[in-house]
Amino acid sequence: MGGGTGGHIYPALAVARSLAAGPDAPSLRWVGGHRGLEAQVIPETGIPFGRLMVRSLRSVELDFHVVLDPIRLSLSVPQAMAMLLLRRPGAIFTTGGYVALPVLMAASVLRIPVVMWDGNVVPGRSVRVTARLAGCLAVAFESTCRALGRQRRPCYLTGTPIRDPRQVKRKDARPALGIPAKDRLLLIFGGSQTVRRFNSAVAEALPRLVERTRIIHVTGDAGYDEAVAGREALPPELRDMYRPEKYLGAEMDLALAAADIVVGRAGSSTLAEVAAFGLPMVVVPYPHAGGHQRRNAEEMVRSGAARLVEDADFDAEALLEAVAILDDRKAHAAMAAAARSLARPGAAEAVAELVLAAAQRRPLPDSAHIEAVSRGVAG
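-> structure tokens emitted (379 positions)
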């Protein structure tokens, strides 16, 4: 059960893939809501997908939805109850949030075990509510356990479930993307939130950037045409240094494996992927959504793996300063080592173990085992 933004969907999808790949692979079904990205993402994976009437709450405008949303929520509870009675799942895994409430309320009545994961240092209000309906918690940051009340239920530090980065090697990724071994590569992307700030900074700095590094720039739909025009305005011999892409999709792992430094937002999945590939980062937290991204970013900055630039301060000059990290080999190596120390490439596998244990009504694994699995060092 997961929906709304990529921060809820992609970690859940990583767990689903880990479950499907295991020796005790269960049958899976995904339940989402209306308005979220899940309706676009999940059907393409082949996982059976159903939707509730409830919407994700991604805005606070005072419009007619203020009246309709509580009605949708109340109607979604019997809808979820019918789904669970029909399917009788062994367990439910959720990334929380408002759209999960109807399913978890129905699961509580039917005594279906629930495992919930959250990826923010400071959990949002809807996550705090849904956490009360879970029998087991998994989190990306240790302090989140305290915020969600670990004394009332088991809480495991797993990191953020992501696609397994151990499947992609730098020596293979660079030729696949056409990046020469000797060249430096900057990867810049903004996650599933708006990237207008990034696109403007790249456009202004581009003539100077391409003299110092290759760039892969994920623009989103809205910024792609302008980025292509910017590339065409470069001297012909420098155009290959800049590669704008609307989205990278399956090539994102290749781009991360090939990169030398990343500029991006502070979503939990982004930070986890950057750490898993041992990359220094200049992190520009998304300034809205309750400030969750800034708190996430501070954890990475504190470790020495990233430098933080506020959204309002991110411009062409800030981007050029980020690239300057590549010129300081000692600082670059120290940041890369700090990133690797945070990596939990086995997070999806660790969470999947918790879900299977709950579904099979077995005792939950001990914390040391889950720690080893998430770090990728379990036997």
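The chain has two domains: 6-164+345-375, 165-342.
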